[in-house]
Each structure stands twice: as structure tokens, then as C-alpha cells.
Specification:
With 420 residues, the chain is α/β, with parallel strands linked by helices. The protein has helices at residues 2-22, 91-95, 187-201, 259-266, 302-315, 404-418, and strands spanning 23-36, 41-52, 70-76, 82-88, 106-117, 121-128, 134-142, 150-151, 160-164, 173-180, 214-219, 273-278, 285-288, 292-296, 375-378, 381-387.
């Protein structure tokens, strides 16, 4: 028993030593511009900022949480050793796969949080397409003594209030909930809506069992107008983060590309993941892995939608529904295994949930009562892409739970962030 305890404590000490060896108790925010079209993408460094404290992980520093379509890698200049890495998706990468990208070049803001290095560090950022091919990359040096690294989060800080606080940023995963489309006089309503977010998430497993792993902080970012922009009705609002529906001409897709404004509003507040709460009763939302999620606070589907979109942004779960003629159809090449843990093209099924199905389970699975199977249809495609269960929180608003495969994926990502 003594040996087990000693090994456990030694493991903690090693991880802490690795963090303390390379990083300060500060956050480096790196802002990039992604620019291009369907056949050519580029990355430009915008600016660097330093913020007090570090709310991210202190273990598994050189490991990717998930594969995804983007990576940020930090290397020690002297040895080339990877000292921190993370993965992400972006709205730009989604847009680059649309028909509009075939005839137009656009740019999108992107912001990433990494621990602040003690010495000169090489940072590499990589973008990949849906075939997992590198389409753009950039390397640059971060010198922590650079006087042009902006200091943020020490002066004016957006008013905030903890909805749930189970521990320090070292102990818990910190989720920030931002107000979008709430005027200053509506902040009482915002705090009421923000309190529902953690309540809704904690009503679903595995968040219910692991709620002690989370902090939720509501950040009262005021807007000039009440509500958010709904282009199909010609309604354009002046809001804190300029969010709008009809992203990629899909009426229900609510997003924003104003990432710098979002992160500026959070400067000085511990956060790792972002929920933008929209003051609207229009149906819709959107979630982008390791970037952010948006959801409508006053639609009748608020509860299931916020949980669904958090599945995207936090755990990298794919949509399990499909439409034959949807604007996003064809996003997953059928000869490539998707990176998301809850869909498969069967190209590399053993890396997904093959260990969770019984040997006699047919592919495709037909019996709707099969707890874990291989049901055809998912990732917006009706053919060639498969999901684990007939229904799941990642497929319909009526599903009362995540399927076992999504449940396991969420538990794994929580463990990645919080356990040695």
C-alpha cells in the first residue's frame, strides 16, 4: 500500500515538475488569422497577449486531447522537445469545405490559450483538411521577454459571478458563460439563464456523476441591442460578439467569428472552455471543438441543445443526424476514418467502439433496441457513415441521454484534463 501511494505521489510530482520547468503561472494568448478558400489556406500571426494565471491542464502536457483538424505544438528551443500541445477545430475550416469557398476568399479570427513559457519557445500551428492532410502551417518564436506581448486582464475585468465553484482552476475544468445580446439592464435575466446551463448539463450523465470536476462562471458582457442577428428576417443587432444565425446559409446555425472580442471579454477570469448564451427564442446553436459553443437561451429546446452543443465544443463529438441534401453533406470522405469518437466510416473501426459491440452484432445494425451497434447514417450523410446507437443526445433533441460511446468519450476527455 505504501509503494502504491509513493508511486502516485511521485507521478504527481513529476507532472508538476514538468509544468514548473517550462511554464509560468500565466496564460499566453495567441491570436491568428486563418485565410483562404477551398484549395488554398494560409495562417498569419496577429498578436500575443499575456494574462494572469493558468486555468488549463498541468498533466499530459505533450499529448493531444483528440486528433481533430488543427494542432498547436510548443517546443523547447534548446532540445526540440514538445512541451505542450493541443488540438482544435475552427469555423474557418468548416467554411473552407462549403460551396462558397470555391468562389470566394475569406479570413477568420482565431485565438488559442497556452501556458506562458519561461524561455524562448517555438510554436507551430497546423491546419488539416477532412482527409487529414496538412493544408497550412506556421512556425514562430515566442520570446517571453518581448515587450510587445500585450498585458491583458489586469485592469478592467468584465463583471462575473460563479454559478458553480467546486475548486481552484488547478483542480477543476473552468467553463465561462458569456452574455450575448443582453443589454446592461438585462443582466439579471442573463444570470438566471446562465444558472440553467450547469443545471441542464448536470442533469445528463456523465456530467451528473462528475459535476465536482467543473466550475461555471457567468460573465456579464453587455450588448447595445437586445437579442441577436437573424438574417433570414433582415434583423441585424449590435451585440457584444456580433453573432448571427444562417451561418453558411443554414438558418439554425448560430455562430460568431469575432473570437478576439470574446477572449478580450474573458481576460482576467479563469477559463478553458466557452459557452456563449444568446438572448433569443430563435431555434439554433453551434459548437466547435476546443473553440466555443453558442446556444439560444429562450427557445423551448434550450436544455437539450445546450447539452448537444457542449458535446461538440468540449468533447469533440460529431453530429449523428443526417440529411440527404444538407449544406454540410459530404463533409466526411468515406475512405478516411473521422477523428470524432462517435462516428465511423469503418476504415479504422477498431480505434472507435469495436470493443463495445457484441461479436454477432450485424453491420449495419437494424435492431433499434441494440445498446451499442453500428447504425448507418451520421455526420450529415445517410450512407457510409455510422453511429453507435439508434438514438443519442448527439442525434435528436428528444433523446434522454448520451449513448454509451459518447458517454465514454466524455469521461475520457474529463479524465484527460483533470487526472494524472
Amino acid at each position: 500500500m505504501f509503494i502504491v501511494a509513493w508511486l502516485f505521489l511521485t507521478s504527481i510530482a513529476i507532472h508538476a515538475q514538468q509544468f514548473d520547468e517550462f511554464f509560468k503561472e500565466q496564460t499566453l494568448r495567441i491570436d491568428y488569422v486563418f485565410e483562404g478558400n477551398d484549395h488554398e489556406q494560409r495562417i498569419a500571426l496577429d498578436e500575443l497577449s499575456v494574462m494572469p494565471g493558468w486555468a488549463g491542464r498541468r498533466q499530459h502536457l505533450a499529448e493531444m486531447p483528440l486528433k481533430s483538424h488543427g494542432q498547436v505544438i510548443m517546443r523547447d528551443m534548446a532540445t526540440g522537445q514538445v512541451i505542450y500541445t493541443t488540438s482544435f477545430s475552427s469555423l474557418f475550416q468548416e467554411w473552407a469545405a462549403t460551396d462558397e469557398a470555391k468562389v470566394l476568399t475569406k479570413s477568420y479570427e482565431n485565438c488559442f490559450l497556452v501556458p506562458f513559457p519561461k524561455i524562448k519557445t517555438e510554436v507551430e500551428i497546423i491546419l488539416m483538411n477532412y482527409r487529414h492532410e496538412v493544408v497550412a502551417s506556421l512556425k514562430h518564436i515566442v520570446d517571453p521577454s518581448d515587450i510587445l506581448i500585450h498585458q491583458k486582464g489586469k485592469g478592467h475585468i468584465t463583471p462575473y459571478r460563479y454559478m458553480v465553484k467546486n475548486g481552484t482552476p488547478k483542480e477543476c475544468i473552468d467553463i465561462a458563460i458569456l452574455a450575448e445580446g443582453y443589454k446592461q439592464e438585462e443582466m439579471g435575466l442573463f444570470y438566471e439563464d446562465a444558472a440553467k446551463v450547469s443545471e441542464f448539463l448536470f442533469s445528463y450523465e456523465p456530467f451528473k456523476s462528475l459535476q465536482h470536476k467543473f466550475n461555471f462562471v457567468a460573465v456579464a458582457s453587455p450588448s447595445e441591442d437586445s437579442g441577436v442577428s437573424v438574417p433570414k428576417r433582415g434583423e441585424w443587432k449590435q451585440t457584444a460578439f456580433s453573432s448571427n444565425y444562417s451561418t453558411f446559409y443554414s438558418d439554425r446555425y448560430l455562430t460568431t467569428s469575432r473570437m478576439k472580442s470574446i477572449h478580450d471579454a474573458l481576460a482576467g477570469i479563469p477559463y478553458e472552455h466557452i459557452i456563449v448564451l444568446a438572448n433569443t427564442d430563435e431555434y439554433g446553436g453551434g459548437g466547435i471543438y476546443n473553440s466555443l459553443m453558442l446556444t439560444a437561451a429562450h427557445h423551448s429546446t434550450f436544455r437539450p441543445v445546450v447539452v448537444h452543443e457542449f458535446g461538440h465544443s468540449f468533447a469533440g463529438l460529431a453530429d449523428e443526424y443526417f440529411y440527404d441534401d444538407d449544406v454540410m453533406s459530404g463533409s466526411y470522405p468515406l475512405d478516411i476514418e473521422p477523428w470524432e469518437p462517435n462516428i465511423t466510416t469503418l476504415v479504422d473501426f477498431k480505434s472507435k467502439w469495436k470493443d463495445m459491440i457484441k461479436g454477432e452484432t450485424p453491420i449495419p445494425t437494424i435492431d433499434q433496441d441494440t445498446p451499442v451497434g453500428v447504425f448507418e447514417g451520421g455526420g450529415y450523410s445517410s450512407k457510409g457513415v455510422y453511429r453507435p446507437a439508434y438514438d443519442c443526445r448527439m442525434r435528436t433533441n428528444s433523446s434522454p441521454e448520451f449513448c454509451p460511446v459518447c458517454d465514454r468519450a466524455i469521461r475520457r476527455i474529463i479524465s484527460f484534463y483533470t487526472k494524472e
